[in-house]
Amino acid sequence: MAKIDSFSEGKILRIESVSPQYTHFIGRILGAQAERGDIFCLEGELGSGKTCLIGGIAEGLGIKEGVFSPSFIIIALHKGRIPLFHIDLYRVEEEEIRELGLEEYLYGEGVCAIEWAEKAKSILPFSCLWINISYEHSGRLLTFYPKGQRYQEILEEMKKIVSVRN
Ligand SMILES: Nc1ncnc2c1ncn2[C@@H]1O[C@H](COP(=O)(O)OP(=O)(O)OP(=O)(O)O)[C@@H](O)[C@H]1O
Ligand SMILES: [Mg+2]
Questions:
Q1: Could you tell me if the CB of 46 is within 6 A of ligand 1?
Q2: 17-54: per-residue pLDDT in tens?
Q3: 138 CB burial (10 A radius; 0-12, 13-18, 19+)
Q4: Residue of 40, 43, 52 to test ligand 1 pocket, by largest number of atoms within 8 Å of CB
């Protein structure tokens, strides 16, 4: 199901995902449209599907290798048509965020996809695509909050591709 609500900074888009494959597919649509400087901020409980979605983003960027979240790596670089910086803040304390030098990636030459992005709110720019993944029934609910025109456009494209179910 895809549903649009009004939201002061853009229109919220909700997509129900019944499988990891579908979440991956949604990620691929994002990755295919991604441009340098894009920032995808993911929030969601343990095991909700953040890495799964980023795997799709990677594929959409033409990245062949798989995307994993090894516990000891905070930032992984994947080379595609644009570099993808996969940032996983699970093991980082909010107070440590400023010491990581993430600005180099956020304002760099690639696309950033950040797990547990809420921890980095103090250093993130306004313009980001926030994606919340929650458990719903046996699947997941993906809620997209576009902050800024750029991400509203991405979601407009998404709406053309993803079937809307009422
Ligand atoms: N609709 C769905 N979308 C995504 N993952 C799903 C879905 N249904 C079941 N799963 C399963 O949920 C798990 C999601 O794992 P994933 O590593 O992507 O989550 P995560 O949010 O990155 O976890 P962590 O918080 O540990 O980083 C996988 O085992 C996947 O198969
Ligand atoms: Mg993960």
A1: yes
A2: 999 999 999 999 999 999 999 999 999 999 999 999 99
A3: exposed
A4: 52
- Hey, what are 115's tokens? 């797990």
Domains of the chain: 2-161 (3.40.50.300)
Contacts (Cβ under 8 Å, ≥6 apart) of 95 = none
Burial class (CB within 10 angstroms; exposed 0-12, middle 13-18, buried 19+) of 52: buried
- Is the minimum distance from the CB of 51 to ligand 1 under 6 angstroms? yes
pTM: 0.94
List pLDDT tens digits, range 90-137. Answer: 999 999 999 999 999 999 999 999 999 999 999 999 999 999 999 998
Q: Which two tokens stand for residue 84?
A: 């993808």
Rounded to the nearest 5 degrees, what angle is found at the Cα of 96, between the Cα atoms of 92 and 100? 85
